[in-house]
Design goal:
Elements (H helix, E strand, L loop, with lengths): L3 H5 L4 H6 L6 H11 L7 E5 L5 H8 L3 E6 L2 H13 L5 E4 L11 E6 L11 H14 E12 L9 H8 L6 E8 L4 E9 L5 E9 L3 H10 L4 E6 L17 E7 L5
Parallel strand pairs: 1-2, 1-4, 2-3, 4-5
Antiparallel strand pairs: 5-10, 6-7, 7-8, 9-10
Helix pairs in contact: 3-4
Length: 257
């Protein structure tokens, strides 16, 4: 039986690109470029790349990117877009809990909850971080966004999602946030590319900053910086608060002196 995150992304490539949360690609890539000092010799892996929006934008700017995802239909959409724009990008189907790469990349990006933190157990989410760490060179950097566990303590996730959803986008209802597991359970309704409406029982893990720091330190990352994640406007100036739905995490194996 397919997991909800596998069913969610079936035949959902074009519709996915219309979702409001996909509109920050250019600004997010501006931030990524700045973080790696515009060094086009670096190898980048985009984990949970979806329809390839960050991979495509970074490739246009001259970077070498490999995009990986679990969803065949999302990857097909990524390949279509790449072909239309006459770009060459290596998109591969892999499960982020079991990546075939070892010490290959200078930078890993994992944005917009593409893989982490969708898994059904904390152990599986940890496997993703572990596999990402193994994929990086020992001077590598990881940039990812994830759900901020401080937010649901002060706000309704359901109300927030409703306020940021545009007509035709996926909707979320019956949200219940479990204080013991920091998981938000909800019913997500998505219309796929063929006009079929699908209702899925979903749950996502929210993390507090100290948990993320501890997990990454256990994997050998030496410097971990966490900020509030603003759509399309990532910045090291945005101190994380209870108002941020997502957090931006930047982790380095080698601490800068």
């Amino acid at each position: 039986m397919k997991k909800w995150y596998e069913s969610l992304f079936e035949n959902y490539g074009k519709k996915y690109d219309d979702e409001s949360f996909t509109k920050g690609t250019v600004g997010e890539c501006d931030f990524i470029e700045k973080e790696i000092d515009y060094d086009k010799s670096l190898k980048i892996i985009d984990i949970g790349c979806g329809t390839g929006r960050h991979s495509i934008e970074l490739t246009k700017r001259g970077y070498k990117v490999i995009g990986i995802d679990l969803s065949e239909s999302q990857l097909e959409r990524a390949k279509e877009k790449t072909k239309t724009q006459n770009l060459q990008i290596d998109f591969q189907k892999h499960d982020a809990r079991n990546l075939p790469f070892k010490n290959e990349f200078n930078l890993a990006i994992m944005l917009c909850e593409g893989a982490f933190p969708l898994m059904e157990t904390d152990e599986m989410n940890y496997e993703i971080l572990k596999n990402v760490a193994m994929s990086l060179k020992n001077t590598g950097k990881l940039i990812f966004t994830t759900l901020n566990g401080l937010f649901p303590l002060y706000h309704s996730v359901e109300e927030f999602c409703a306020s940021t959803t545009e007509e035709g986008n996926a909707t979320y209802r019956s949200n219940t946030f479990d204080l013991m597991t920091f998981r938000d359970h909800n019913i997500t309704t998505v219309e796929d590319d063929f006009g079929n409406k699908n209702e899925l029982e979903c749950n996502e893990r929210y993390y507090v900053p100290s948990e993320i720091t501890w997990l990454l330190k256990s994997l050998g990352f030496k410097r971990i910086d966490i900020y509030g994640a603003k759509l399309g406007a990532f910045s090291r100036n945005d101190e994380i608060t209870t108002e941020d739905f997502e957090m931006l995490v930047i982790a380095d194996f080698v601490s800068e002196v």
